[in-house]
Write a structure and sequence with these properties.
heterodimer, A: alpha/beta, 5-stranded parallel beta sheet, 5 strands, about 45% helix, B: alpha/beta, about 50% helix, elongated
């Protein structure tokens, strides 16, 4: 099957510095368009408005955290089909499994390497489309 | 020309230098909280302030390589979380716990201060490209053999290196391995529509600033002139017209630019990049010197930092706009992120464009070349 193009990424993280670095790196090396979003609450709204191809979601955020945001996205028809990748410092195997059970397609470890993040996201995207889910 | 990786490294270097300075400021804020902890019972505002900074440093420190700082901030954050009744509630601390928190905060202050910006060499320097002899390379993409013949005869005697392709695909392959100073593009390619190819090039950060000269029949030419700012020459191509067009673009790329910024690293980085493209670059370390330089040199473009000692960017801009000889010179204003609300003010005072710091150098290059009428 052909893999659809990955263009628009919604990047949800409460840390402005992390958003800046991730956006720079994804745009410069991946050629993606990155829309920044500072919180889970905002993400719930922006995901349905901006219609991203993919959402990169921080797990630890004040207020609505990553898992709560993912549940919200899955409960709404306009956003439930958008694939979500979690970003977190905790990447124990059992936690990765737990996050995937929540509906995330993959987990990216923090801190990520800005030089390889775009490639990693691209590979996850291609794998996910190549394998039935 | 820098690869996207080099451009990214340069931006990250800038961000890291900026972050180091902010760690120092965060330490000063923490110091005020610590002093307050010593004099009053720990209250929610205090605890929240400390938690906010610790969470922020914990999350962002590692991304810039400040692992130790991030780790200590993480300990403060975890300690506070352990004492919170639920994840979204603040802990109520006793006086004794206030003393412990004060000690933890003290460690964080200390380690933030160890990242003193004055002592560490800036990673930005690593990213400055090596100077190289400035040649001029043209990529030609056309299936038209007569155009290949004309260029092979005409360009090498001008000191121009010519690389040849016969389709859009071949042009993209050439671009994968190196960067030309100019692309000469036939509007009638066998494998791709020119509009699509132009769009592809425009959307790539490292290709968007390459000047393009289009070659086409009368109808295509008229169409291109309506939809883009690229220079067009019509078929059949006359050698003198072609040469004049290429020389024109080459001369535009050799114009003089004045850079005014109080950060010597930014000056060094940008100077190297613009010189690599062929420009003559004169730098000034602050506004007063900048305005003097602009008057002496009459540059084709001015790149102006907004916040500087002696005379700030907007004042230089006002001087330029008040002077009949200088008011036509295009100006790009560099504005720090937290000054975003001032951008409007900058544009109202006559800047032609602005870039928010930290920026990708390639973006500044694209905008500069656009203002100089060199790329679309």
């Amino acid at each position: 099957m052909t893999v659809p193009a990955l263009n628009r990424i919604l990047l949800v993280d409460d840390e402005e510095d992390i958003r800046t670095v991730a956006k720079l790196s994804l745009e410069a090396l991946g050629g993606f368009t990155v829309i920044e979003c500072p919180s889970g609450q905002a993400a719930a709204e922006m995901a349905s408005q901006e219609k991203p191809d993919l959402i990169l979601l921080d797990v630890m955020m004040p207020g609505m955290d990553g898992p709560a945001t993912l549940r919200h996205l899955r409960d709404h028809s306009s956003t439930k089909a958008i694939p979500v990748i979690f970003m977190t410092a905790k990447v124990q195997p059992q936690e990765v499994t737990a996050y995937k059970n929540l509906g995330a397609i993959a987990v990216v470890a923090k801190p990520f390497d800005p030089m390889t993040l775009a490639r990693e996201i691209k590979e996850i995207w291609e794998d996910w489309h190549a394998n039935p889910h | 020309m820098p690869t996207p990786t080099e451009a990214l490294e340069a931006s990250l270097g800038q961000l890291k230098a900026d972050y180091r300075k902010r760690l120092y400021q965060q330490a000063s804020k923490l110091e005020r909280f610590q002093a307050a902890l010593r004099s009053v019972q720990p209250n929610p505002a205090l605890v929240q302030g400390i938690q906010f900074i610790a969470h922020s440093i914990h999350g962002s420190g590692k991304i810039f390589g400040f692992t130790d700082v991030s780790h200590v901030a993480g300990e403060v954050e975890d300690w506070l979380y352990d004492r919170s009744p639920t994840t979204n509630e603040l802990p109520r601390l006793s006086a004794e716990e206030g003393v412990t928190l004060s000690a933890l905060v003290g460690r964080l202050i200390q380690i933030c201060r160890e990242e003193n910006p004055a002592e560490a060499p800036s990673p930005l320097l690593r990213a400055v490209p090596q100077e190289r002899a400035k040649g001029f390379t043209v990529f030609l993409a056309t299936p038209d053999e007569s155009l290949h013949t004309i260029c092979t005869r005409l360009l090498p005697p001008e000191g121009i290196t010519l690389e040849q392709g016969r389709s859009g695909r071949e042009l993209l392959d050439l671009l994968d391995s190196s960067m030309p100073d100019l692309i000469l593009l036939d509007m009638d390619l066998p494998d791709t529509k020119t509009t699509n190819l132009l769009k592809t090039l425009r959307n790539q950060l490292n290709h968007a600033s390459i000047p393009i000269m289009l070659v086409g029949g009368e109808a295509e030419r008229a169409q291109a002139e309506r939809s883009s700012r690229h220079e067009c020459i019509s078929k059949p191509v006359r050698a003198d017209k072609l040469l004049a067009g290429i020389r024109g673009i080459r001369e535009k790329l050799q114009q003089r630019i004045v850079l005014v910024d109080d950060d010597p690293l930014v000056l060094k980085l940008l100077k190297a990049r613009f010189e690599q493209r062929g420009f003559e670059v004169i730098t000034a370390p602050h506004g007063e010197e900048g305005w003097k330089t602009i008057q002496e040199q009459s540059p084709a473009l001015v790149i102006l930092d907004r916040t500087m000692p002696h005379m700030e960017g907007l004042t230089v801009l006002q001087h330029m706009k008040a002077s009949p000889e200088h008011k036509q010179i295009p100006v790009i204003l560099l504005t720090a992120r937290h000054e975003k609300q001032d951008i409007l003010e900058g544009l109202e005072s006559g800047a032609d464009d602005y870039i928010v710091k930290p920026f990708v150098p390639e973006e500044l290059m694209i905008r500069s070349l656009r203002l100089l009428g060199i790329c679309d």
